[in-house]
């Protein structure tokens, strides 16, 4: 009788244990599924955008006839797709050499040659990665007015949160109350702290407080929003240099990343912005925003070719999930779909 009771209780507890194990396994499966769905949705959105961009160039290569009119059409299409005049002329020159040296008369082969030449440009640049992880890891986000810096800061914060990092934001744009309020909204969306002061405060002081707070709370990532500034506004450029000096006084190696935010819809004007900021500051990467609002994607090739600065992220929407880590291989494969 005792043995029967014993076996009953053993079976009962082992079943319950197995149930608990199955419940926890199912929970983990659900977490993984939801995470995978998030990335697959984002990838699908990204693919649709690159399809839209690549369709403009792909149309040219449907023709089998390669002549001077074909080259002229291709040149115009590359310029209209924001590759820039200088870079387009370089590409056309190389393509003409291929045609003459190899006697190419098949547009599909030429399409493949163009793909490989552009692929080399993208794959020559590796994304920036710090050799060490500092605490807090300080990211400074800069750029001109209206490019989507504050939104990018909020989306970038979310990206780090879902990777398991603790994040804090610093409202370095003290000129506009709307910028401070917008960053606070992103703080609420991501359920994280935002260090700010009243409008008109010294931005370097705000950032100093933010670093000290991040250190005391052992925060992994501190992302700093800054005021939009043009290179012609010397006082704002001096202010940004002051911010960097203040950061370096606390941590000599910081800021550990300086990300330049550029608007994809302004095309070659973003090249000019990148040129100026790159001269003044040690930029590690670029956040390219509003890529979903344009059918021109050549600016990505132009930026990387001219400055050798990696595109770190692309923004393709307004929600917190709409910041995508730029993948060169994926971009080039979606940009150059096979011609049937």
Beta-strand content: 5-15%
Mean pLDDT: 83
Radius of gyration: 25 Å
Determine the number of helices (DSSP H or I, runs of at least 4 residues): 11
Q: Could you say which overall geometry the principal axes of the C-alpha atoms support?
A: elongated
Number of extended strands: 8
Proportion of residues in helical segments:
55-70%
* Alpha-beta classification: alpha/beta
How are the strands of the largest sheet arranged?
3-2-4-1-5-6-7-8
Largest sheet: 8 strands, mixed
SSE run: HHHHEHEHEHEHEHEHEEH
Report the end-to-end length measured between terminal Cα atoms.
77 Å
Low-confidence stretches: 19-40
Concise summary:
The protein has 340 residues and is α/β, with parallel strands linked by helices.
Structure, described:
With 340 residues, the protein is of the alpha/beta class. It has helices at 2-58, 68-80, 85-102, 107-123, 149-162, 177-190, 203-216, 234-250, 268-280, 298-307, 328-335; strands at residues 137-142, 167-171, 193-195, 221-225, 257-263, 285-289, 311-315, 323-325. An eight-stranded mixed beta sheet has the order 3-2-4-1-5-6-7-8, with helices on both faces. Residues 19-40 have low confidence and may be disordered.
């Amino acid at each position: 009788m005792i043995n029967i009771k014993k076996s009953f209780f053993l079976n009962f507890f082992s079943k319950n244990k197995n149930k608990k194990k199955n419940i926890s396994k199912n929970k983990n499966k659900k977490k993984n599924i939801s995470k995978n769905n998030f990335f697959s949705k984002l990838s699908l959105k990204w693919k649709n955008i690159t399809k839209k961009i690549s369709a403009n160039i792909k149309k040219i290569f449907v023709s089998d006839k390669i002549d001077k009119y074909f080259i002229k059409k291709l040149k115009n299409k590359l310029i209209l797709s924001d590759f820039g005049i200088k870079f387009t002329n370089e590409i056309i020159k190389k393509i003409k050499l291929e045609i003459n040296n190899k006697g190419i008369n098949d547009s599909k082969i030429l399409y493949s040659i163009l793909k490989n030449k552009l692929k080399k440009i993208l794959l020559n640049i590796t994304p920036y990665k710090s050799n060490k992880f500092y605490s807090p890891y300080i990211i400074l986000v800069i750029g001109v007015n209206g490019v989507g810096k504050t939104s990018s800061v909020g989306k970038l914060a979310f990206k780090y949160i879902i990777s398991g990092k603790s994040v804090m934001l610093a409202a370095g744009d003290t000129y506009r109350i709307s910028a401070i309020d917008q960053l606070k909204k992103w703080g609420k969306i991501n359920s994280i702290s935002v260090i700010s002061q009243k409008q008109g405060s010294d931005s370097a002081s705000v950032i100093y407080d933010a670093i000290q707070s991040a250190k005391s709370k052992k925060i992994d990532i501190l992302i700093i929003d800054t005021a939009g500034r043009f290179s012609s506004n010397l006082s704002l450029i001096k202010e940004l240099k002051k911010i960097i000096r203040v950061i370096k006084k606390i941590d000599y190696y910081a800021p550990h990343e300086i990300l330049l935010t550029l608007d994809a819809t302004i095309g070659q004007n973003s090249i000019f912005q990148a040129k100026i900021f790159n001269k003044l500051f040690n930029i590690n990467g670029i956040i390219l925003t509003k890529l979903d609002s344009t059918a021109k994607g050549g600016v990505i090739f132009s930026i990387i070719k001219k400055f050798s600065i990696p595109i770190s992220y692309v923004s393709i929407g307004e929600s917190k999930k709409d910041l995508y880590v730029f993948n060169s291989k994926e971009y080039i494969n979606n940009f150059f779909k096979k011609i049937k």
